[in-house]
Amino acid sequence: MTEIGIGIVGGGYMGKAHAVAMAAVGAVFDTKLRPRLEMVCASTPASAERYRAAFGFARATDDWRVLVNDPAVQAIIIASPQETHREIALAAFALSKPVFCEKPLGASIDDSRAMTAAAAGQVNMSGFNYIRTPASQFARQLIADGTIGDITWFRGEHTEDFFADPARPATWRTTGDANGTMGDLAPHMINAALALIGPIASLVAMVETVHATRPGGTVTNDDHAQMMCRFANGCMGQMYFSRTAHGRKMGYAYEITGTKGAIRFDQEDQNALWLYRAEGPEATRGFTKILTGPAHPDYAAFCQGPGHGTGYQDQIIIEARDFLRAIETGAPVWPTFQDGLDVAQVVAATFASAQTKSWVDVSKF
Amino acid sequence: MTEIGIGIVGGGYMGKAHAVAMAAVGAVFDTKLRPRLEMVCASTPASAERYRAAFGFARATDDWRVLVNDPAVQAIIIASPQETHREIALAAFALSKPVFCEKPLGASIDDSRAMTAAAAGQVNMSGFNYIRTPASQFARQLIADGTIGDITWFRGEHTEDFFADPARPATWRTTGDANGTMGDLAPHMINAALALIGPIASLVAMVETVHATRPGGTVTNDDHAQMMCRFANGCMGQMYFSRTAHGRKMGYAYEITGTKGAIRFDQEDQNALWLYRAEGPEATRGFTKILTGPAHPDYAAFCQGPGHGTGYQDQIIIEARDFLRAIETGAPVWPTFQDGLDVAQVVAATFASAQTKSWVDVSKF
Amino acid sequence: MTEIGIGIVGGGYMGKAHAVAMAAVGAVFDTKLRPRLEMVCASTPASAERYRAAFGFARATDDWRVLVNDPAVQAIIIASPQETHREIALAAFALSKPVFCEKPLGASIDDSRAMTAAAAGQVNMSGFNYIRTPASQFARQLIADGTIGDITWFRGEHTEDFFADPARPATWRTTGDANGTMGDLAPHMINAALALIGPIASLVAMVETVHATRPGGTVTNDDHAQMMCRFANGCMGQMYFSRTAHGRKMGYAYEITGTKGAIRFDQEDQNALWLYRAEGPEATRGFTKILTGPAHPDYAAFCQGPGHGTGYQDQIIIEARDFLRAIETGAPVWPTFQDGLDVAQVVAATFASAQTKSWVDVSKF
Amino acid sequence: MTEIGIGIVGGGYMGKAHAVAMAAVGAVFDTKLRPRLEMVCASTPASAERYRAAFGFARATDDWRVLVNDPAVQAIIIASPQETHREIALAAFALSKPVFCEKPLGASIDDSRAMTAAAAGQVNMSGFNYIRTPASQFARQLIADGTIGDITWFRGEHTEDFFADPARPATWRTTGDANGTMGDLAPHMINAALALIGPIASLVAMVETVHATRPGGTVTNDDHAQMMCRFANGCMGQMYFSRTAHGRKMGYAYEITGTKGAIRFDQEDQNALWLYRAEGPEATRGFTKILTGPAHPDYAAFCQGPGHGTGYQDQIIIEARDFLRAIETGAPVWPTFQDGLDVAQVVAATFASAQTKSWVDVSKF
Ligand SMILES: NC(=O)C1=CN([C@@H]2O[C@H](COP(=O)(O)OP(=O)(O)OC[C@H]3O[C@@H](n4cnc5c(N)ncnc54)[C@H](O)[C@@H]3O)[C@@H](O)[C@H]2O)C=CC1
Ligand SMILES: NC(=O)C1=CN([C@@H]2O[C@H](COP(=O)(O)OP(=O)(O)OC[C@H]3O[C@@H](n4cnc5c(N)ncnc54)[C@H](O)[C@@H]3O)[C@@H](O)[C@H]2O)C=CC1
Ligand SMILES: NC(=O)C1=CN([C@@H]2O[C@H](COP(=O)(O)OP(=O)(O)OC[C@H]3O[C@@H](n4cnc5c(N)ncnc54)[C@H](O)[C@@H]3O)[C@@H](O)[C@H]2O)C=CC1
Ligand SMILES: NC(=O)C1=CN([C@@H]2O[C@H](COP(=O)(O)OP(=O)(O)OC[C@H]3O[C@@H](n4cnc5c(N)ncnc54)[C@H](O)[C@@H]3O)[C@@H](O)[C@H]2O)C=CC1
């Protein structure tokens, strides 16, 4: 057991999630490396100090360079807005410090490319937490095992409704491609598509703003978007992403059809995976609702009882375990910056297709 | 109460369904016109006679012209394969006899166009039964009432799995566009999209054969297909159709998002409609699972108890009621041949888009 | 194919359901006997005539003796209130005419006993329609096949909410044990318990009126009731019955645990049966949602497509098929008057236990 | 922010859960008191040391007295088997140290009574974690607010299947009342019943062993049990508890009917609460599936996004927050030892009723 000093940039939604995860991960997974909450950084001295006290960090700063350069900070988690990711990551890699970066990797494909280049030979990891639930990890296993045969179709969505109300005022979130639905929500489901099915060869897409004006301003980024695609392995697919999907709170959902069966999942009931196998007599076939438990990946560390359930915060703890393992072994643990870049490429292709109203090759981006 | 002599062409899946419906509809809906099962027609004398006896028709024939021309046959239901629809309908209209035609209207867009032209001024109706359930009729009402506001997104699917098993032999169903998934299954959901949202302005599509060879032959039509579209009212949508969707038995399902709420429906649980309204405190918002009952369209005639449920056969009885009403009043009852043609146009556009790999204007077809 | 003249006493909720069923059953099931709607009886000449015209009967009467005695009426369906069942059934049996009687068999256990005695050697059948759905018939098969092993526990409920609103006025339904929840709703689920698990040896129960006064009068029968029981085969069980269960529209639901698996069913989604089998690796176990289809009992006659669904009215058509078969063969078809009496015994035991606040032997009633 | 030294007795299932919770709670809830993992105790020096290292405690011991007496241990969590609870709690209270005790409070009602007596004036808390989910806390609020009116019926169950397989060998869990289903599982749901509805006045019960022999021994405690009860407020209820309920993994579920609506909940989908309100037009009534979110009790601290979900471990973190708050303020935080005793009384009454096969007054126990 060795201690390691953790620095987190950002103390908001995700900064807190990672702080909690780092506090808990050792006890949950009996990790070799044991995190010490060394320093937190936020935009202002006051907020940084508030986060320090709340989350239990030793020190606080309002300058991420201070954090990155501090010798007691041995690994860095970037949980600040997308425009900040590139500079911070590059500075950390320059000092050969391991970096975990929240999704999306960069604010643009250029950022993502630069970050991935800099990550070469370094410990790096991308924050795609939803693919890390026991259910979705198990879905990946089932596909890899051939349980549902060759995949013939994929449907994915990431839908929420925090901007469904047209009366909700404009904020910084309603400006900038990186903060729109394609920039902010789509990366999770695109990552899932790539992880579950494989690379996307080509796609055709629509991207649009549903409510162009809101109290307080004009909306300059996208509210929702959709695509159809062809995966490199030949499988056909469709996806939808929205922040205006009334009723959907965590609509990270997919349906996968194969030649021997099918899988369905909806993150709103994250502890259940639905599996159909074309086996046995017709009379007893149907989708089986499998509740996650110790028989599924990464579940047992949280609870010995099946069906007792893991939650959002547990996903971040799983990421923390892997980041620590990556640091310990020096070997990257999936998903890496490269995976973040793969997603960014699909996002870039999506915007291009929507603009040209035509099919595009993803490899061109 | 007046009797009317009914002739049905076809005694298979749908021929039987319509025969049962005509036997039951009077008692269910207390119709003014009371059907008399006058004549049934099938491919061979033997099968025709078998159907006659089984369903309770007075007479049988293996020649649809005999049926159409028989003076005691006062109204005609076409429940034979798609290639036969055009000729039969035209012959019936030539005698000014009312025609109900199963979906798809014709075997091709040309057929559909010719049939719709011939239907002008005649009593005509198209067999889109799924849109006639109490739940889907209620969905239409909710949208028309503005309950979920302006529609911003639509997703539809019609998925089944009767050809999901690659070992299932080739049949006549695996040849001919009219018998593939776009010809056979998609019309139901396209009709739903048009009925729920409105005309489709443009679309981009993929159409493909999943299992190109099967025991006994080559498959020359499509197993599954998908599209993205723009409705004339500006709403964005996506659809998927499949006969190889393992686990889906009656996957006629849609999700509709509006500015004030959302609707979800899946025909596999046809007696439930899910409604989300963005009203009241956040803490009590969610999708409400509404069980159909006497408060919903066309339910009360079947049962006085809510949640007691209607089934597939009841949809055909509802169609029968409307066909009789159309005959009685001489006024067309929705959906008409024109609606069948509207669907055919979208189907034609889908094939064209898939071939050209580009967006197409539906109005061009 | 032989015609048989049917007389139905009652033209309300169930009178209509049976009239429709008799009109449709021949075409649906290709029955040997073909029903002719000969005569309908209701309380007044005007209502009887109205039903005659609406349902398509040849004649009407307001005197059930006329109906029973009419030579053209060859089989009788009793769909009038419970207090009338006994007299009508006895009169019909006296003429050796087949009788189908709606649940509950009699208005009291004495009635039921007298009716069952009179039914000896006669064609007789009881109206427990819910146990006749494809799903519940399949549940019975699964249990008989040993698919879920020895049964260790049963939970049943029949819950609706038509009297949940305290502001709903008192009617004839709120007086008389035969019209309360135990008399009116419980028989369905008690019948299911007996059919699925077997005879009940002993029970302890609570019976009560939730809203003792309503606009327009005092309520003198029960709103809800519950029991715990021991089945003769040793299995333990519990049941609940209510007409004040807000939100439940057709809450005929059961859960059955066995040593090798479990079954769950809820009539509100009548086309799905949930089956758990303790087989295979833990990781893929779960309840399988089986959609009914042609592979399940009595489904195929209604529709060739699985998941397309049957509804309430179809249950009555299945009953009609069996009643006709019983008439044709002279052999009773389950469930018979004896089954109605078995249920009545449990109902009587329930009232007695509730009053004495003690366990009672069902065989004593 | 003040540190507090925590000692945990037991390092198994719950010992770990509490260790993780104490590591995470400060960052999650920004607690005033900040736990320091001071000492862990287990049966053997080796296991204790293993837990120490894994969970991050400063010290380990195999003697709980050492832990209790250690001055750096300022608060004690009892997560060892039920027979040990009493002695440990009493020793801790003797030193005026705050005690959190896992359910069931004692191994017998005598133990529970002695412990509750000793807890007078001390900081004490009982480990009923399931009632602490955002969904179940919200259910309590809804009932308290009168949203569903006066409660007329309650059904509860706690069902799992870890002993459903008759081939599973006998262990210490299959001996001793405290380790059977009534002792081990039922307390959670009884606690829920008391918390949601109020005290139980009287009950009648059945308790039994389903598989009396197992490989390796005879089973001397109960596999499943059920009761009917009358709550002090007049409400009628029924409950079921089982460790042999095939297919149920975390079947902590309840249904509550009131005069204005109803609530349904199943812990297997712990982030959803189903609410029916008898309001508005019939046509739009139904159960609303509410996904928990920041608008619900104790959710926001875990995640800002609704529907993102909490899990089992989060319940223990909520308990930790409350235990710390109780220590800080010196005021008991619900649920206390008294609540554990209230449950124990119902358990004792259940056994007595099952033995005497009669209704019993809970207050007599
Ligand atoms: N994986 C997931 O589920 C989620 C990921 N995210 C991602 O996490 C990142 C952070 O998002 P949120 O936590 O939602 O944002 P937030 O607005 O809640 O918090 C952002 C934090 O960054 C700090 N910050 C801003 N600019 C900074 C700068 N120049 N230097 C140092 N600190 C700065 C702010 O003071 C604040 O503490 C984003 O990249 C976002 O896309 C966000 C939500 C969920
Ligand atoms: N609305 C719905 O849910 C469904 C609609 N359909 C439609 O119903 C129509 C019939 O399909 P199915 O009943 O499934 O077919 P089927 O193969 O079960 O029955 C076809 C019937 O048509 C008869 N037939 C064939 N050629 C004929 C001819 N030249 N003259 C007279 N009779 C002829 C056959 O003898 C047979 O009785 C098709 O247009 C199909 O697309 C089919 C199934 C479901
Ligand atoms: N199996 C099921 O799902 C259901 C069964 N039932 C049962 O069906 C029977 C009838 O109930 P509903 O149809 O709901 O009642 P209803 O009130 O709708 O109809 C009763 C009919 O009986 C007639 N009637 C009453 N007294 C009569 C008399 N002395 N002679 C001749 N006709 C008389 C009335 O005129 C009326 O047409 C009852 O035994 C009831 O328990 C009712 C509803 C559902
Ligand atoms: N709230 C909940 O959801 C749950 C509560 N529990 C309760 O938690 C308690 C512990 O149960 P589990 O963690 O499942 O048991 P376990 O068998 O997993 O762990 C018991 C621990 O207690 C230690 N222990 C045993 N005897 C001891 C002694 N005399 N002195 C010191 N340490 C001793 C053992 O070494 C072991 O570390 C029980 O009271 C149980 O009823 C258990 C599971 C779930």
From TrEMBL, chains A, B, C, D:
GO MF assignments: nucleotide binding; oxidoreductase activity
One Pfam family matching this protein: GFO_IDH_MocA
Keyword list, A-Z: Oxidoreductase
Domain Gfo/Idh/MocA-like oxidoreductase N-terminal, residue spans: 5-124
Keyword Oxidoreductase: yes
InterPro entries (UniProt xref): Gfo/Idh/MocA-like_OxRdtase_N, Gfo/Idh/MocA_oxidrdct_glycsds, GFO_IDH_MocA-like_dom, NAD(P)-bd_dom_sf
Domain of life: Bacteria
Protein's name in the database: Predicted dehydrogenase
